[in-house]
Amino acid sequence: MQVSILIIGIVAALPSGGLSWSLFTPSMPSSTSATFNDRPRRVHQKPVHIQMKVKVALVGLPNVGKSTLFNAIAQKSIAEAKNFPFCTIEPNVTPVPIPDANLLPLANVAKSKKALPANLFLVDVAGLVKGASRGEGLGNKFLATVRECSIIVHVVRCYADNDVIHVDGKVDPVADAEVVNLELLLADLSHVQRRLEKSTCTGEEREVLQKVEIALENGLPAKSIGLSSEEMRLIKSMGLLTLKPVIYAFNVDEEGAMKLAESYMKQLHYCDLATSFFLVVSSKFESELCMKPEGERRDYLESIGLRSEPVLELDEQLSFIRLPLLVKDVLDLALVYTGPGVPPGRSQTTKSHILASPSSVFDLAGKLHGDIQKALCMLKLSMLQA
């Protein structure tokens, strides 16, 4: 009986392809609830520490629209966006839900009262300027914050606006992006060289860092030299900035900017185009739109000439939808679902969690709970015997 119930739950929750694995413990029929309640270890026991905390750093020069984009993605006004450099000093952090078409259907199956999506944590840090790797501006504090994040979203200003100050006096997207990329690279070089000076840096770790040092001295980010998974593990504690995946967010105020963004990507130095991604955003437009009640958004769109664009279709093109999904894909994350393994009358919450994509459903089950992993063993056995 136990195995058959788990078979139904697992099969019902597995999506058809894609990066997202899911595992769900369904509500148990009343005829079997007494059997489970008699067990000393129960399948619906609360899992512990199954979710990763994924931090996403918004970086870029001052006054490129990072805080405005942060507010647009958060769908509320949190970060102060002012027309002067370093208006952001302390990092702003907000949870951002990952859009998920599976969560509500699973919650309905379980008759849960609540459905809670998995969250990324978006971090808006101070603007970076030339010399940040040497501590200029808020460099040291900025870089320490970014090292703690899993991925970098590099915001690049692509619009001219005389009312918005540019730190170098003119807008040049390629040059601006290269300032940030070079500072990240120089910061890593200094970080690696300090580690190599220590007597505790020996053996395989030293060999890997020497390889990274040569690449950085030649203007190559660490992720471009093809480190193995074991080499990555040896230097993971370094938190190297140029090992982190990068998504370039080209901030525009015009339509049809996709080809322009592609040309910028091809011109960038100090980045690895094979492992970098980009999207085009309009932080000012998106921020203004998200501040309006849903009932007023269509009128606002019509007032700026987007009368024929359905609001629902437009939402799918906005950063608060696109960016979390792109981060999930770039980091190869899995969405895992847990539900209440109790009778429907006691069903409370179905929840989505973020995990690094496991190599198998069996490994995924073990991250949720040992009893679920054991049930999967029995599931495989029963299928073989059948």
TrEMBL record:
The keyword ATP-binding applies. This is OBG-type G domain-containing protein. One of its GO terms (molecular function) is ATP binding. Keywords: ATP-binding, Nucleotide-binding. It comes from Cyclotella cryptica. CDD domains: YchF. Residues 54-301 form the OBG-type G domain. PANTHER family: OBG GTPASE FAMILY, OBG-TYPE G DOMAIN-CONTAINING PROTEIN.
